[in-house]
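> tool_call: predict_assembly(chains=two)
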Amino acid sequence: MTKYQLLTVLLLLFCLTPVRAEDGSRLWLRADASAQAKVTANKKSPTIDIAIKELQTNWHGDKVNLVIPAKAGIPSSAGLTKEGMTGEGYSITGDAKKGITISAFSEQGLLYGAYHLLRLQETGRVEYPLNIQESPQYNLRILNHWDNLDGTVERGYAGHSIWKWDELPNTISPRYKEYARANASIGINATVLNNVNASPKILTAELLEKVKAIANELRPYGIKVYLSVNFSSPAILDGLKTSDPLDKDVQGWWKNKVKEIYRIIPDFGGFLVKANSEGQPGPQDFGRTHADGANMLADALKPYHGIVMWRAFVYSPSNEDRAKQAYLEFMPLDGQFRDNVIIQVKNGPIDFQPREPFSPLFGAMKHTGVMAEVQVTQEYLGHSNHLAFLAPMWQEFLESDTYANGKGSFVANTISAIAGVSNIGDDINWTGSHLAQANWYAFGRLAWNPQLSSEQIADEWIRQTFSQDESFVEPVKTMMLNSWEAVVNYMMPLGLHHIFAVGHHYGPEPWGIIPGGRPDWQPWYFHNADTIGLGFDRSSTGSNAVSQYFSPLKEEFNDINTCPPPFLLWFHHVPWQYKLQNGRSLWDELCYHYDLGVQQVRDFQKVWDKQESYVDAERFQHVQSRLKIQARDAQWWKDACLLYFQEFSKQPVPYDIERPVNDLEQLKQVRLNISNYENASR
Amino acid sequence: MTKYQLLTVLLLLFCLTPVRAEDGSRLWLRADASAQAKVTANKKSPTIDIAIKELQTNWHGDKVNLVIPAKAGIPSSAGLTKEGMTGEGYSITGDAKKGITISAFSEQGLLYGAYHLLRLQETGRVEYPLNIQESPQYNLRILNHWDNLDGTVERGYAGHSIWKWDELPNTISPRYKEYARANASIGINATVLNNVNASPKILTAELLEKVKAIANELRPYGIKVYLSVNFSSPAILDGLKTSDPLDKDVQGWWKNKVKEIYRIIPDFGGFLVKANSEGQPGPQDFGRTHADGANMLADALKPYHGIVMWRAFVYSPSNEDRAKQAYLEFMPLDGQFRDNVIIQVKNGPIDFQPREPFSPLFGAMKHTGVMAEVQVTQEYLGHSNHLAFLAPMWQEFLESDTYANGKGSFVANTISAIAGVSNIGDDINWTGSHLAQANWYAFGRLAWNPQLSSEQIADEWIRQTFSQDESFVEPVKTMMLNSWEAVVNYMMPLGLHHIFAVGHHYGPEPWGIIPGGRPDWQPWYFHNADTIGLGFDRSSTGSNAVSQYFSPLKEEFNDINTCPPPFLLWFHHVPWQYKLQNGRSLWDELCYHYDLGVQQVRDFQKVWDKQESYVDAERFQHVQSRLKIQARDAQWWKDACLLYFQEFSKQPVPYDIERPVNDLEQLKQVRLNISNYENASR
């Protein structure tokens, strides 16, 4: 072979080496699978096989030993012996020389340990000797998919559903396994496959066979399958005269159905129920309580260790402040629920707004299991067009002090599980935008350990997903950490809420009117702008929603002078000229917040554009393009809200800030032709 | 009458007092007509009657005496005896005590003197004793209306034509007189009623009767009527076999037609002709020269002292640089034109671009009358949506040194008349936007005295039109004076030109392609962007258009290092990395200019918004709204041009400037559905 021939062959080889497109499909799992580590285990199972394979191909150290020892062998500091633990914890010890040992009570713990070790490697944080003990704060860390059986995703901004019901069970998308792996790598151990606005069809034999096929794919990764159910299923599916939970036939129907499910899926997790909420059927249709309904399902599930997650997101078009209704509905039932019922409560009292105070149900229901529901998908945060890294928001929520048992009664400690409404779809990059992957990641990490800082989560995610170059990591991290606050600033600062465009919730519509619609779907219901001021009076002179909180919080919220500025307009109707502690009037402060939001997004653009040399062209341009949309939208929000509220305040926008570039009347004409099942294309 | 009754009556009276809407209809003529001055005149005529009435009702001093004296009585310093003067000059003397005397050779001079005196009053500049002598630099100060007989206005952005041909001659709109008054108040003494793309129909007997009706309205204000004519009129109107200017029948036809016109309108001014240009017929269709064509018409008009304004705006789809063609066409004809022919030359060599160097024909045609044509309507300057006060542009043009007769041969001194393409329509505010009225005003003032500073013109206009409050005048004046340069910055800095959207010329389209269109209508023809650089090489290594200028200008333009930066890309194809004298590369400098333009418009918004208390709500909001459009458009321009040119430069936009908020591919999809006869609604 001549030199020339050799060169040709080498060039050919080089060209044939598959250059993996940086399309975001690999998420934060981008190790190059070129390792050849020696991995041993003292037990064999499909889950352990996964752990072994992950380490063999990705761990660039030498030896790893996976051990499920006798209980005595586990350090107590690992928390693995704590009562009620599912045994998902693990310890990691050892060093480069003698090799590394991952110990856990369960195969699942070993798998989590393996992902932990790889995360250390991919974030450049391996420091010998290793001495790590981890166990999750919550046993149930669950995604809620609002995916419909027709493939659409309610509030989904990443294409269609990843569950291909039409193809199942014969065709198994490789995505199911990739999905399971991604979730396992961040500790998520459960998933609800279908929309809380549930089709009864999900419980038919045909569909359950499809569910089984998915469950089989997820099981080795330690992920249990749950389903949303329609409370009227007995009547709709099998023609029962009623779906009354106290009816024997109904109870029998559910018992049989549950039996059927567990025959097909022996480790089935349980039900998620949205009942008597926004048109969904429920026990109140038959004069029964939420407890009656939940308990009936719980009784059916109990023999199989299944659970009921019963949503507290209920409100009716009554005269009562919508923010108070879940509390009023559920508090009288505290203590009446079975022990395998968990009440699933949204983080805030309204509905996943850009910023809400925590729901007063947290800490208040002392005799009932309560779990938190946060929204990973950005229904109210600019869909997948806007960068809004949500770890800081969830952290603010989890760290809120409820005072339920005195000072230090943080929300995180009042709940026993956490659910995240998924932002996952069949887009090649999973979440519609590359940066939105970070919210999936952050949800998993916080569900495992709510004490993790947003900064650490962002740092981990950036290093694994993009680059470990400090010149990249630091500015991008700062940008992400400021992004949620920026969105709040240009959308709804100071406690404003729900002034979105009606329906799709993308873009501003503080003037919005749904003709004939219920008041608590109308923006004016929430902002109450008038010539005097702005905001919802929930103080003791108003709806008195503050009374649902514990002292001293209720007093703090109740007093306009002590109410934290981020919640000022949530709890008070504040005069335009009211002076805040920084000396500005409410109107001026509002203007500065909106303007700041716009400037912040422009700064994000600068930050990102400077990263061009650190990022592949495909993801660079995609993110760049989304930030452009966000910059335009931020201006739109600012102009729409300031110009609209100005009609009430009659005050000039402070002259040192950038002027609106839109006319209110034109903005009022904007109609985005998007459904609740698609991302806003802008 | 009780006190209460009295109060009621007073209130009623107050309410009945007509509050004149500030709709802009009064232009800069907003004196309150409450004066009762004693005005005398030593002669009587319709024109003098107007002068008397204006002073009687508007002059808040005591006595004014209007005098047409014997020649000997006029101070020679007034210039009224200069050869060739039409006697439009005047002097104003006197003081508050003994009264004021306005002297002039003509009734027209008296009227101008009256408006001068009132202008002093309305701008707060009356300083006794008065000792003013004025006479116009040019005898012909003419508006060109591009108004079609169907009521549309080519490149008109203020509604439809003010000439209501359908109603004429029976119905006489009061606007005709208001139009005449406004023009007289700033010294405009002539108008071409119809589009240079002329319908032959304008010369029919029916239409001439309508023209007569308009002329009757304008005459007392000293405004003569002219018409644009179609060179093929003989063939089209009366079936002649040809319109060849050397054909006896054709010559006879024109002689008869001119005779007919003067029978109907004895003081008719003459013809404006666009011939062999953009599809219009002309002498070249018959193998004759422009001189042949112009002279034939001149001969017909000569007996009546009529003139021919023959446009030099000609270019053909040849290989020759379009910027050179007018010069190449007309210079060989220098000296061949009759003395009642004036060649009407656009200020720049191309076509009313945001900024052009002066046309090399100025100063070059030494044996032919030459007049300048500037565009008051903002065809290429954002229509009536954008604020672009054009006095500084015209001043730059008029003050350009042609070196035709050595140093100091300014354009202003090479011309004998000046035409402005009108921005007037039937909108209530005349010009589509309130601030665009200033361009009409500035055109008139500069046509009278090209030495007036832009600053003085803006100052006068603001004080008369809005307010004399210094807190208003100064910032608004500064804004206006910077506005043209801002438009250049965000549209076409550094000598870029003609990269507009095809057709309507609103918005950017540097990528534009007219399929099958002639090269010199395509944006790429003008910008020549490639991987090396940007700009049109008109140096001696390129089209050598520089050779059409006199030394030392041609050498200055020819050398990339001495070419003034505002014309750099007009004369040179400049490498992206070429370093300008400020140390920046061409690419960076381009970016900074575009960004500066955006920032300047945002500053204009701030300036204007601060004026709310000085301006009536109607005009305040109207201007505010237009500035918003301009701010949005500036961003659009910046993004479109930078993102497009970036595809060639391959350079990042400097990271310290605000990032684009649009994607190029989306901008390329923008199609504004507007004709050449309407304002862009944005």
